[in-house]
C-alpha cells in the first residue's frame, strides 16, 4: 500500500524537479600559483561571497580542506601529476593516498570529484599517459574499499586532445591517444558513471583567428551569427557550444555517446600582454557573466548536441596568479585580485541581474595593438638569473647580440640590464612569428616605450592586421 502511494506522490515531484528546478552547478577553480594570495580561510570566505557551489583545487591541500569544513560547497580535489605513475602500479599507494587525503575530511566535506592529474595528455608523451587510466582505476578501487561512493573519479583534459574539432560533428581524438588512452578512459567513465572533465577556452581559438571568428560569437553576445554544421545539421550560436560538442562527437565516434560532460575550467583573461588581443576586464566580465547566466538557467540549456542537459561548470579562476608561466593572459584569469578585491563584480549563482552590476570599463584591446612592441627585463627580477637568460637569447637566431658586443652601438653603457633587454628584444623580434615568447621564465616583459638610445636601435615587434 505505501509504495504506490509514495511513488504517486514522488513521481510528479521528480518530474518537476528535473524539468524546471534543476540547473547546472557553477563553481570556481581555486588555483594557488601566486606568492601573494590570501590564506585558505580568507579565500573560502571570498568563494562563498561569490556564491560558488563548487570549488576545485589542484591538490588536496589539508589547510584548504580544513577551511572548507562547515561549508556547503561541493569540492573537487586532485591527485598531483607526479604521483600518477607510481599509483598506477601500486594499490597500496592508491589506498594510502585516499586514506591520507580524503578520509580525514570525508564526509564532513562534500568531496564529490577527484581528478587524477591535470591536463596530462596535453603535455609531451611520456609514461604518465599510459599510467593515467590504471591510476584512475586504482583510486576508484581505494574509494570503494573505504566505502566512499559519492566521489566521481576523472581527469581533466584540454581541447588539444582532439585532432579535429571542426565542424563539431568531425570531432576526433588524436590518433596517438585514441586507442591507448581515450578508449580505456571512456570505458572507465562509462562504467563508473563519471564525467568527462573538459577545459574549454573560446578565448584561445578566437584570439588566434579574430578576423574570421567574431568576438561576439566567442562572448555569447551574438544575436545574429549562427553556424550550421553541414553534417549534423545542428545550429550553433556561440563558440563554446561548438567546442564542447566537438568533444561529444569525438566520444561518440569511439562508441561512447552518453558520457556526461563537466566543464572543469572555462574563463576569459582580464588582462595580458600588448601582443594579445581581447584580454580585458570588459570581455572577461561579459564572458563569465554570460556563461553563468546560461548554466544557471532553468530548465538547463545544454548544447545543440545535447539540448536541455545540465553542464556543471567551474570558472577559472578565483585569483590572478602571478607565478603562472607563459604569456600574460595566463596570469590574468582571476575574478579577484590577490588583495581579494573584485576585478569586476560576479555572482556565480546567476541571480544578480546584469543591470545591478556597475558599468564595465570600455574594452580597449579588441583590435591588435598597432604600434611597435619591445621585450625588456622586467621590474624587480633576480639579476643573477638574467645572466643565463641573456646568454640563452644570444645563442639563438642570427646576429642576435652583435650590437651589444664590445665596439657595437649598444655596448655602452655596459650594463647587464640594458644588454639583456637588447638581447630579449632582438630574440623576440626574430622568433615571435614562429612561437617565441617574451617571457624568459618571468624575467622579461613587453613594453611599448622604445628603449633605443643614440645609435643603439632595439629590434621590435609589429603585429599585422
Ligand atoms: C615513485 O617510486 C619510485 C620507486 O619506488 C621512487 O623512487 C619515486 O620517488 C616515486 N615517485 C614519487 C613522485 O613519489
Ligand atoms: C610527464 O608528463 C607529466 C604531465 O603529463 C609531467 O607532469 C611529468 O613531469 C612528465 N614526466 C617526464 C619524466 O617528463
Ligand atoms: C575532419 O577531420 C579530419 C581529421 O580527423 C580532417 O582531415 C578533415 O579535414 C576534417 N574535415 C573538415 C571538413 O574539416
Ligand atoms: C549582426 O548584427 C551586427 C550588429 O547589429 C551587425 O554589425 C552585423 O553586420 C550583423 N551580422 C550579420 C551576419 O547579419
Ligand atoms: C555506457 O555505455 C552504454 C553502451 O554504449 C550506454 O548504453 C550507457 O548509456 C553508457 N553509460 C554512460 C553513463 O555513459
Ligand atoms: C637569484 O638567483 C640565484 C640563481 O638562481 C639564486 O641563487 C639566488 O638565491 C636568487 N636570489 C634571490 C634574492 O632570490
Ligand atoms: C637566420 O638566417 C638564415 C639564413 O639567412 C635563415 O634561414 C633563418 O631563418 C634565420 N633565422 C632566424 C631566426 O631568423
Structure description:
This protein has helices at 2-21, 40-49, 62-67, 84-88, 91-101, 127-145, 175-191, 203-208, 215-218, 239-253, 281-295, 383-395, 416-431, and strands at 26-30, 54-57, 74-79, 110-118, 152-157, 162-164, 172-173, 195-199, 227-228, 235-236, 260-266, 302-303, 306-307, 313-315, 372-377, 444-447, 461-462. The protein has 465 residues and is α/β, with parallel strands linked by helices. It folds into two domains: 18-356, TIM Barrel (Alpha-Beta Barrel); 372-462, Up-down Bundle (Methane Monooxygenase Hydroxylase, Chain G, domain 1). It has an eight-stranded parallel barrel with strand order 1-2-3-4-5-8-11-14. It has a three-stranded antiparallel β-sheet with strand order 16-15-17. Strands 6-7 form a two-stranded antiparallel ribbon. Helix 6 (127-145) links the parallel strand 4 and strand 5 (152-157). Helix 5 (91-101) packs across helix 6, helix 6 (127-145) packs parallel to helix 7 (175-191) and helix 12 crosses helix 13 (416-431). The protein binds 2-acetamido-2-deoxy-beta-D-glucopyranose (NAG) (7 copies).
